[in-house]
Amino acid sequence: MTKNKRNILVFFALLVLLAGSFCGDICFGSVHIALSEWNNPESLYHDILFNFRLPKAITAILVGAAISVSGLLMQTMFHNPLAGPYVLGISSGASLGVALFLLGSSFFPFLLLNNSLGLIFSATIGAVCVLLLIMLFSLRLKQAESLLIVGIMLGQLAGAMVTILQNHSNPDSLKLFIVWSFGSLSSVSWTYMQVLLPLVLVGLLLVVILLKPLNALLLGEKYAQSLGFSIRKIHFIIIICVAILAGGTTAFTGPIAFIGMAVPHIARRLTNSDNHHITFPASILCGAILLLWCDIACQLPSNGHVLPINAVSALVGTPIIIWIIIKRKR
Amino acid sequence: MLRTEDVSIGYDHCLLEHLNVQVEAGEFICLIGLNGSGKSTLLQSLCGLQNILSGNIYIDGKNIYSLKQEVLAKYFSLVLTDSIHVDNLSVFDLVAIGRCPHTNWLGHLTKQDKQIVYQAIEQVGLTTKMNTNFTSMSDGEKQRAMIAKVLAQDTPIVLLDEPTAYLDVLNRIHIMQLLKNLSKQMHKSFVVSTHELDLAMQVADTIWLIADNQLYVGAPEDLLLQNIFQQVFKFEYYHCEETSVFFHLPQEHQKVTIAVHGDDRSAKLMQKALERKGFGVAENASICILAKENTFEIDGKMFTAIADVLNYIATNYSD
Questions:
Q1: Which domain holds residue B160?
Q2: Assuming Cys at both sites, which of A12, A148, B73, B263 could form a disulfide with B101, CB separation 3.0 to 4.6 Å?
Q3: Cα dist. A214→A275, B100, B147 in Å?
Q4: Considering only CB atoms, which chain A residues are within 8 Å of B73?
């Protein structure tokens, strides 16, 4: 079939693009590194390349893939093109955790032990708490729509608590919190990579067993049920996947806006398909590429200035989403 | 094959009680009833998609509530009235989703699965549209694709909720004919809810008629024989004859009576038009229209179109 041949070509092109973007992300940065320095293990540049840029590029790939797949899951589950990885309140939960850790430290000074580990830990706790609540609701509520509303409400609730904490915190910790909310791919060192990499891989593998029920869900929940799937069970597994993929990555990098919402649309457009056997790998590739591009764009100002990834991803993501809306209305 | 035992269905309040019906293998059943009478609820209750209020439903002697969802999916397939909103799904992909209960955990389509999908698409006459986007098709084609989906699911019982809704007259007939043929060829049981009383009477082995919170079951002719339709459709629109049921709208009546003479066919049509406008038609009326093959003469004036004659009468003779 011609459509299949076309998609093989699309996947091939995406793989090439991914490899190119990966190399590009390593080559470009706030400091220029000559090729001659690459093999000199003594030089500081070698350190920058292998202990800073390389893990950052791998993080971009992992996080880009993870949040894009989460976005795909959420869009299929909620039948809503504007759903994203954070609709269930994951990023709000994570930021509440981080806010409690950073801003609450004025109340509990002993909490400020190890900053980056503490950040990851508190963000994870925050995201997991929200997701546990959502899972409890998913066992009670059969309709995805009600679950969506609960997720948004929980997000608002967490946001309100964050605002209260901000109101009562000192400027220094407030600055730390705001910097966290900018998102950062460079906070993942090789040590943390040992956690992030298996986490994302496990999450993605878990999605593979969801591909079949996800396709059935395309037709609506009643049809999916008539095709032999238990809706509550599927919702539950989807939420676990999103918890691992979006929750796990948010803990390490902070929230990254709009990529997760935009990429599934790009994947569907490129492959001309809604079949998850195709859109799932396509979302992984597109998400990884797009986040690598965002990371490259972050370094553009040079002279040691770096833009926050969360802002750049929004700059890239929002035009794509607007374009989708316009295309849809046509 | 399928048997209900004292089943009550409904949501907060009970819609139908004490249902004791059965579906035999290869039986074609049409489910008829007014909007809100519980047709969809009954269909969804039969296959376990909607919880029943009381009673038991047995499939092959097994209680359906003791069976897992994936087992039920091998007994029942259905087409609902819910519209499907997917932007980029080809007919092939859609029909392939129907294979879900038969494929492995990954949803991999084997050669045999693909063959079944192709065959299902061919049976509904969409082979040329195999790679067409589902959303870009007409309502009739969409309905065919959904029917192909249930064929691919390959279950002994197929439930269809108003498959002829939103379709034009031609498509309604084609779809009903297609369903009937499929039921015969593949020896599958069909339960089809519809508002097409006329078509249902012609294709159904058995009619399930919901009226006044009751389910009447019988061959179409038996229901006529027992005057069930007459009892159920009490209002004047329905006209039950000895051997068929149809409906016609009551007309407002004009006092004027008109006679129509002349060429057989044009006179008959003229007469029909007058009746539609509420005029009485009588042989010896004082106003007389002489109908010829392409002309109508009234009061010495000649008209070529029936509409012009009606206008003339309306301006000159109306009450």
A1: 2-234
A2: B73
A3: 9, 11, 21
A4: 226-228
